[in-house]
Design brief:
Largest sheet: 6 strands, antiparallel
Radius of gyration: 18 Å
Mean pLDDT: 97
CATH superfamily of the largest domain: Nucleotide-binding domain of ferredoxin-NADP reductase (FNR) module
CATH topology of the largest domain: Rossmann fold
CATH class of the largest domain: Alpha Beta
Bound molecules: flavin-adenine dinucleotide
Number of domains: 2
Strand content: 25-35%
Order of helices and strands: EEEEEHEEHEHEEHEHE
CATH architecture of the largest domain: 3-Layer(aba) Sandwich
Length: about 240
Amino acid sequence: MLPVWQTGIIREITQVTPNTRRFLIEIPGVENFEFQPGQFVTLDLPISEQRSKRWRSYSIASAPNGTNMLELVIVYMPGGAGTNFLFHSLNVGDKLTLRGPMGTLTLPKTLDKDLYFICTGTGIAPFHSMLQYIFAHNIPHQKIFMIFGTRKREDLLYPDELKALEEKMPGFTYIPVLSREDWDGRKGYVHAVYEELCAGLPPAIFMLCGWNKMVDEGVERLKAMGYHKNDIIAELYG
Ligand SMILES: Cc1cc2nc3c(=O)[nH]c(=O)nc-3n(C[C@H](O)[C@H](O)[C@H](O)COP(=O)(O)OP(=O)(O)OC[C@H]3O[C@@H](n4cnc5c(N)ncnc54)[C@H](O)[C@@H]3O)c2cc1C
C-alpha cells in the first residue's frame, strides 16, 4: 500500500553548488519520520491540473535520526517544471504535499562484501544517507568506496564531510572524479575507477544511482566484467 500524503514545511533552503540546493523539510504530522536509508519521497507540486503530472520523487539525503526532519538535495533542470517551482516559487516556511518513504534502493542486510557506491550529481543522496547511517550505528562492514562523479570542483556535494568521514570510518574511501576540470584528484568518469579497483573481481556489491545514461552504462560494464546481476543494485532518476 502506498504511504498517505502528508504536509511538509520547508525549514531551510541552502545553495550548495551553482545548480543544486539542499532543502530541509519538517513533517509536523509525525514525531519521527521512519524510513530506510536510500528511500525517497514523492512531492505533489502545484505545476499541473493533472495529478500524476505533478509528482516528482527525491531521495532522502539524511539518515533516519528519530526526528521529523528530512534533507533533500535537488539539482535545477533548465526547463524542468518541478525544479523551476522548487527553485523559484518555494520559500522557507512554505508548505508542501509529500508522501513516503518509498523505494527499494536500501542497504543489504549484512555488509559482508565490499560495497561500492557509484553516483553522479544528486545521485549521491541515497548513499549519503546510507553512509551516515552506517557510521552512526557502527554497522560492521568490509571496505566501502564512494565513487562520485561530477564536472567541476564547485559541483562536489558533501566534499568536506566525506573527506572527514574517511578519517573517522575505517575501510571507507571517498573518490571524487571530475570530468571537466584539471585538478590533483581523479579525472574522467566514474566507470574507469571501479573497473580498476575491481579488475581482479573481488566479491562486492555495487549500488548505482543517478540519471539513466551513467547508471545503465555502469550496470552493463559491471556485468561485462563478470559480476552477477544480483550484486548490482541500481536506481534511475529518469
Ligand atoms: C526515485 C527517484 C529519486 C530521485 N531523486 C532525486 C534527487 O534526490 N535529486 C534530484 O535532483 N533529482 C532526483 N530525481 C529526479 C526528479 O524526480 C526529477 O525528475 C527532476 O528533479 C526533474 O524534474 P523537473 O520537473 O524539473 O523536470 P521535468 O519537467 O520532469 O523534465 C526533466 C526530464 O528530463 C529528464 N532529464 C532531466 N535532466 C536530465 C539529465 N541530466 N540527464 C538525463 N535526463 C534528464 C528527466 O528524465 C525528466 O523526465 C529522482 C527521480 C526518481 C525517480
